[in-house]
Specification:
With 185 residues, the protein is mainly alpha-helical. It folds into two domains: 94 residues, Winged helix-like DNA-binding domain superfamily/Winged helix DNA-binding domain (Arc Repressor Mutant, subunit A, Orthogonal Bundle); 37 residues. 63% of the residues lie in helices and 4% in strands. A two-stranded antiparallel sheet has the order 1-2. Helix 1 crosses helix 2 and helix 2 packs across helix 4. The radius of gyration is 21 Å and the shape is globular. This is Winged helix DNA-binding protein. One of its GO terms (molecular function) is DNA binding. Keywords: DNA-binding.
């Protein structure tokens, strides 16, 4: 049953019905709409990354693989797998290892060192060239489009702060949910 007392009439905004199983109250509607926007943005961002990369190299790479390449290049310092996982907030190590093999096979990344703790990854000269050209295209298309929207720079700063805050909240509630899972019957 829907709690209309917390709805504050928002279901009538622009004639849209914002209620569904994840959005019964105003607070649930706001969170659901943020999550739905986040899902759409994630998919659009992944398509953008793939298309931007495709303009500089003939390589089919997913958004996370593209992000991994740029994270490895970040600050031009070698990264361990643990560093890459932490910087990308990922835990799917087997998928990450597959992506690293793909980037190494494409000649964009190289592995150095040995053993579990001594292995690091750096971009090759080809990887540097690809990420530099990617940055050029990103600046000429994406950054230029962002700059053409008035006051968007301030809104991006707020969005970043909000997403960082929500990341922390999601991490905390995920730990809580994992702690209190029901036992299988």
């Amino acid at each position: 049953m829907q709690d209309k007392s917390q709805d504050n009439g928002r279901d009538g905004e622009e004639g849209l019905d914002r209620h569904w199983h994840l959005a019964r109250t105003t607070a649930e509607m706001d969170v659901a709409e943020l999550e739905y926007a986040l899902m759409r943005a994630f998919e659009a961002f992944g398509r953008w990354q793939a298309e931007c990369l495709a303009t500089v190299i003939d390589l089919t790479a997913s958004g996370p693989e593209n992000a991994m390449l740029h994270i490895i290049r970040m600050n031009d310092r070698p990264k361990t797998l643990k560093d890459i996982a932490r910087l990308s907030n990922r835990e799917d190590i087997p998928n990450m290892q597959y992506s690293l093999r793909k980037l190494i096979g494409a000649g964009l990344v190289e592995r150095t060192g040995s053993g579990r703790s001594g292995v690091t990854y750096t971009v090759t000269q080809a990887g540097r060239d690809v990420t530099d050209r990617y940055a050029d295209i990103r600046a000429s298309l994406l950054v230029k489009a962002v700059q053409s929207v008035p006051n968007l720079a301030h809104r991006l700063e707020q969005a970043t702060e909000t997403l960082d805050l929500m990341t922390g909240i999601y991490e905390q509630v995920a730990r809580t949910a994992a702690t209190h899972r029901r036992l299988p019957k």
